[in-house]
Amino acid sequence: MFEIIPAILTDNPQEARELIAKADGVARLDARLVKRVHIDIIDGVFADNKTVDPSALNEVDHSLLLDFHLMVNEPVRWVEKCVRAGGDRIIGHVEMMESVSEFISEVTEAGLSPGLAFDLDTSIESVEKRLLLDVDVVLVMSVPAGFAGQKFDPKVLDKISELEKIRKTDPTPFKICDDGGVTIEYVDDVRSKGTDEVVIGQRIFEGDLAKNINAYKKAA
């Protein structure tokens, strides 16, 4: 089922907790609308920006599944923090990994679902195909990673099509997730190419979250 995932990118721990609570309120009323939230973690090395640390969410009470999107140097070093913060999936950027296979193994051994993220200008061919078949989700950026509010770049559509072809060879196919700048005007374009999930940042939280998610789903 096609899924819209609200994303949180902030350096304010209180704001992060409040947005999780807002999404959790919608999930408790209608779990079909929201079941997971995407938390952007940026360390100031990968991008010239810095967000909350996963530890800020250690004591937060909610019913959601949490995705931690690690835009950090050596994501493998952040796995334990994400486990303690109640993560479900840990998605690391391949550009910042010395060993992609080590990251996948570390997340899997921790009992969580591994994912790989590709920045806008990073080719899928930069990672061995066999490693893509070992993850639960492959995330492609449709803006340069690191900042909210950027404009969608349609060149990501070819990358989504490429992933769609690769996963047809996988007996347990990974999900394809698109992240960055996807407006209602573009959501059907990414869905029709094979995307299973779209991450939407601050605009999804503006106003009525449930209505905003429904609007995206109808447009897809």
From TrEMBL:
GO terms for molecular function: metal ion binding; racemase and epimerase activity, acting on carbohydrates and derivatives. Pfam families: Ribul_P_3_epim (PF00834). Keywords: Isomerase, Metal-binding. SUPFAM superfamilies: Ribulose-phoshate binding barrel. GO terms for biological process: carbohydrate metabolic process. The keyword Cytoplasm does not apply. This is Ribulose-phosphate 3-epimerase. The lineage of its organism: Bacteria, Candidatus Woeseibacteriota.
